[in-house]
User: Fold this.
Amino acid sequence: MLPRLLLLSLLPLPAAVAAEPAMKLLPASDARYRYEGRFDTADASAPVAIWSGSRIALDIEGPGLAVEFGPAVGQNFFNVTVDNLTEIAGVPAGDGYRFAWPHPLAAGRHHVEIFKRSEADAGHAAFRGLELATEAQAWAAPLPAYRLRLEFIGDSITAGANNEDGAEDQWEDRRTHNHALSYAYLISQALGADHRAMAVSGMGICEGFVPMLAGDTWNKLYPRDNPTPADLTRWQPDVVCVNLGENDSGFTRSNGRPFPAGFAPGYVALVRAIRAAYPKAQIVLLRGGMWGGKNDTNLRAAWEAAVKELEAADPRIAHYAFEHWTNHHPRASDDRAMAAELTAWLKRQPFMAPFL
Assistant:
């Protein structure tokens, strides 16, 4: 019989447990990150992602990846995409949150995009950077070959609120509110556009389900409780689409009050403010997506009066009313139908010829 110590030495050793690679933070201030959207950049080490559709991009190489978020307020959900695989990062309110990418990374270069799927009025979150393996490399991601700059100004329909809900709209958990599936973002993707969206659920021209009004909000850095104006000179759109009015209709109807008498002049004032900020842009005035935009005769009359006045004075304004509409908030299938409608119409317009 072999001695006990020799016998033990001949037994197979347990497989070594793979250790996680040592990680280091590539800070948010690094010039290789590409930021697209209306960010609060007062603190370069923690820029704040506010509006839905805001994006951060970087190319990386290495075996590991984590996203470091900074202080967050309210509910914030992000699509984190590596190459063609997407996971949802739910960032809780508080001082910071680390989201570890749950899949192995193969050797070679990978494209990372962090996309804010939830809307500005639900919450905002700072970005501190990406954690990469100590020996990993990072590169500025190639700039997409955008054909135009496209901005949407609107309410819940434009934000993509409730579009991944079931039969009933729900507002408690914004995880199912996905701007990446909104009609607005789908149109930007179809047209190869650099996309922005200033959209707040419940917001109206004169009245709505939230205290903010569109004329006081569309050009701000944050949607509420912060009067800081955005620097609109930093990014000028080629085309601006405005879709507002459902809340002026829905809020007053639900409270047994008449449609706001000031809607048409308020709408005209908003569009003229947009024109002053974006003197070279084509402006497209939209109506619809839900019951009010299609069926409320008061909203339709006021909107048509405003459109007539605006188009008479400005040749670079056009309008379109959606045929597709829903009684509840549009779901992803409705967003696809609306996007197909408006994309087809836009492609027929002479003002789009330089971008197609």
In short: The chain has a mean pLDDT of 94. The domain at 148-355 is CATH 3.40.50.1110 (Rossmann fold). The first strand starts at residue 23 and ends at 27.
